[in-house]
Design brief:
Layout: E1 2-5, E2 21-24, E3 30-31, H1 33-41, E4 59-64, E5 77-80, E6 85-89, E7 92-95, H2 101-125, E8 129-133, E9 138-143, E10 147-150, E11 175-178, E12 183-187, E13 197-201, E14 205-206, E15 214-225, E16 235-242, E17 248-252, E18 257-259, E19 265-266, E20 278-285, E21 296-301, E22 304-311, E23 318-326, E24 328-333
Parallel strand pairs: 9-15
Antiparallel strand pairs: 1-5, 2-3, 2-4, 4-6, 6-7, 8-9, 10-13, 11-12, 12-24, 13-23, 14-23, 15-20, 15-24, 16-17, 16-23, 17-18, 18-19, 20-21, 21-22
Pfam family, one: zf-RING_2
GO molecular function, one term: zinc ion binding
Keywords: Coiled coil, Metal-binding, Zinc, Zinc-finger
């Protein structure tokens, strides 16, 4: 008896289970039935994985009969033998037995290829990414993240930098320290000036490949004013850096303005900024088969959306979380542990935006 692991559906990226594994007859790649049928019925007349032409009639199910020898079945494996491996389509069930050696060999070869591909995917994304299904055909991507890169100097000596993120500026300038993965502490200057600091997260929010759902990335920060006692004014931008162009999409809390990548500024009807306010920034990618739609960015404050969304019409593939600070400390929530530390904004109720600046 041979055991196989199917891994994930190419369309939705969730695990395949023995009772919901379907193939296309021209290529034998595997998917959930609802994913591949919707993919084809909504206009993509090809396999989501290899782009071989496909129709609804090409969809066949792979399934296993109940094993009689007490073999363990974890729910993620296909157990194949000459007598219990079958395929079916809506009109016919084809029994695979000892007379179908060629078909069995092809299935064996296919499953080896799938296992290799899934092992590579799991190795790359298993510890880093986790997909959480939400409402409205939306999937939230949990990605382990932390503050990593300091993109400006405290002074000519570069006392505080990406490789040495904790310390004091020898010239007495105010600057930020990366205290830990989530906390940035701004140290107000003693004798120099308070410098603006640009800080980026370690991991980018990347456009998913072959995803049939809307995909949501999101993070939040809690602000703490620093230097108010000595008259220093706090400033904070939250947003993303385009990893291809280095342009920014940001919300400026002091003035309540949203900036797009071209530098255009948009003013929501009302705004305020108080100590300990929580700001969030989200990025939504459309499904791969909706080529007429674009990704967009939105911002939140204390659990409520700020204004409208910002369309990313150039449709770039990667954006990195970013903050721009001056006399302001922040504590981030990258969603690493949402059970003990949930977002202020309820991502499960996010509706796909239709209004943009």
């Amino acid at each position: 008896m041979v055991h196989y692991k199917f891994g994930r559906c190419t369309v939705c990226q969730f695990r395949l289970r023995p009772d919901n594994v379907y193939t296309l007859k021209n290529c034998n790649h595997t998917f959930h039935h609802e994913c591949v049928s919707r993919w084809i019925s909504e206009g993509s007349k090809t396999c989501p994985r290899c782009r071989v032409s496909a129709t609804l009639a090409d969809i066949k199910q792979l399934y296993v009969e109940e094993a009689s020898d007490g073999s363990d079945d974890s729910g993620d494996e296909l157990i194949q033998s000459s007598s219990n491996m079958t395929t079916q389509n809506p009109s016919k069930i084809l029994k695979i037995n000892s007379e179908h050696e060629k078909e069995i060999e092809e299935i064996n070869s296919l499953e080896v290829e799938i296992k290799k591909a899934n092992d590579l995917t799991d190795k790359k994304f298993g510890d880093l990414f986790n997909f959480v299904s939400l409402l409205n055909n939306l999937v939230f991507v949990k990605i382990k993240n932390k503050w990593k890169e300091i993109d400006i100097e405290c002074c000519d000596n570069e006392c505080i930098n990406t490789n040495n993120p904790v310390g004091n500026c020898v010239e007495g300038n105010g600057f930020a320290n990366l205290i830990n993965d989530e906390n940035i502490k701004y140290l107000v200057g003693k004798s120099g000036c308070d410098k603006n600091v640009y800080i980026y997260a370690e991991n980018s929010f990347k456009k998913p490949q072959n995803c049939f759902n809307y995909t949501l990335y999101y993070f939040e920060i809690k602000c703490k004013f620093e230097g108010e006692l000595n008259g220093s004014e706090s400033h904070m931008f939250i947003g993303f850096r385009n990893c291809s162009t280095t342009n920014y999409i940001s919300y400026y809390a002091r003035d309540g303005k949203i900036y797009d990548e071209e530098g255009g500024a948009f003013q929501p009807s009302t705004f305020s900024w108080k100590n300990n306010d929580i700001f969030g920034c989200g990025l939504v990618y459309p499904p791969i088969n909706m080529s007429n739609e674009f990704p967009y960015v939105f911002f939140t404050q204390n659990g409520k959306q700020i204004g409208k969304g910002v369309l990313l019409k150039d449709n770039f593939d990667s954006y990195k979380p970013r903050v721009h600070l001056d006399c302001c400390s922040v504590e981030a929530n990258f969603g690493n542990d949402l059970e003990s530390k949930p977002f202020k904004y309820d991502i499960s109720k996010h509706l796909i935006l239709k209004e943009f600046y």
